[in-house]
Prior knowledge:
Layout: H1 2-35, E1 40-46, E2 48-51, H2 77-82, E3 90-96, E4 110-119, E5 131-141, E6 149-159, E7 162-163, E8 178-179, E9 182-187, E10 194-200, E11 215-226, H3 228-257, H4 265-281, H5 296-321, H6 336-360, H7 372-410, H8 419-455, E12 459-462, E13 465-468, H9 469-491, H10 505-508, H11 530-540
Antiparallel strand pairs: 1-11, 2-3, 3-10, 4-9, 4-11, 5-6, 5-10, 7-8, 12-13
Helix pairs in contact: 1-9, 1-11, 3-4, 3-9, 4-5, 4-9, 5-6, 5-7, 6-7, 8-9, 8-11
Amino acid sequence: MAGAIIENMSTRKLCIVGGILLVFQVIAFLVGGLIAPSPTTAVPYMSVKCIDVRKNHHKTKWLMPWGPNHCEKLKDFDEAVSRQIEANDIVFAVHIPLPSKEMSPWFQFMLFIIQLDIAFKMDNDLKENAEITLDVSLAYRDNTFDDWKEIAHAIEIRKLKCTFGSPKTLESEGRHYDCDFLPFMEIGSVAHKYYLINIRLPVNERKGINVGIGEIKDIRLVGIHQNGGFTKVWFAMKTFLTPSILIIMVWYWRRITLMTRAPVLLEKVIFALGISMTFINIPVEWFSIGFDWTWMLLFGDIRQGIFYAMLLSFWIIFCGEHMMDQNERNRLSGYWKQVGPIAVGSFCLFIFDMCERGVQLKNPFYSIWTTEVGTELAMAFIIVAGICLCLYFLFLCFMVFQVFRNISGKQSSLPAMSKARRLHYEGLIFRFKFLMLITLACAAMTVIFFIVSQVTEGHWKWGDLTIQVNSAFFTGIYGMWNLYVFALMFLYAPSHKSYGEDKSNGDLGVNSGEELQLTTTITHVDGPTEVYKLARKGAQE
């Protein structure tokens, strides 16, 4: 009867805690779905064909597609042929943003992809595996009266991937190839109001540069940037969550330092997980509004990588510390086989990111996928990381299976124990199963919302109410993992208080048949966890 009361009190109070966390979880999804706009916006740009007349005393090398100082334009290439204008004298100019608009630091980043309109012509056919050479320049200015200042200049090569759906005959001349979008440019900050892109297609028949690439009619760009409204909501969430996790971290570590024993491995790992979550939460992005920090995308990737590596390591160590028959507990070196693949996979992804976004800090037009060597290198890093991830999940599934097998096999020993010790071990078993359930729920929600955000149009409309699914995914999943870390530190914080020893030390003593150690993390004498504390207080009440 007493055991049933204890179990009911423990379950009731855990349900209250779970209910409060669930409310915050729902709020996190609603903030993204109802308040924030779509995370990103895609803007199409059509380049303007300009004539580079610098040989004729043109004062500036930057060619504007429109405005008071716009370039001399070409309607099409037939006009260029009739006027005997060479291909090397034609510049494709794109102004960012469109007329009467301004860019903003709240946009955070700019990503551009390029598509070429290539027409079929019998005497100028597109060769198989053709490569196009782009002489590209990027400039900025903050008002319409300033001169353009160069940000970057590069000569890039892109491999064309085009198909032609009709027979290549005279009747098909003039029809366009179906060409894939190609990576063009990525910048990790939007610190200026206006940007200008000039693209040249230099032709050198002797060196084979831009020969056999078909008849290019136009160049189109698609610019993708983060929405300013979503950025403000995202920054607000980070600003709110940072002190929340910091407070629970301070409280959690204070509980540990009040113990007479040294912190054990699982407590250290949970604290490290809290630090990595705080590292993500700290809203350093606020500084990007006033500073041109192009490395913010790379810095964000590194922060996320550290958190996910810590999260995966925590799951392994959590299972290992609940292995009842394992002797190599409370030592990080005992988990090198399981943690090793995490370290190798994380290192491979870090090298890949440095080869991509690291190089883009100097050359925003660079892409590792544009060359065969770069593609093979990138795929090698990704494959190795994928293999490490598969090995990790095999280890994790095996350890979870072992823990559940041991728990179910030794639960039969619980009735022979004293009441206090039985309650302690029942709490250990319950909190393990409880955390496994929460972990599976978080992982399932992450996968489900990711799939939903990919297959839907980005928003749902119910009457007059519009729900931004993609924004809800970002804010909801971000809030969910913060609540997960919060719940971990709350449930696994030891208590410095004593809730009685069942009136005698003998009641806590166990004989040799009662030696059932589920974890070295926390013992009843050194201080119970919050799960045990709630159950024990319920029994006293």
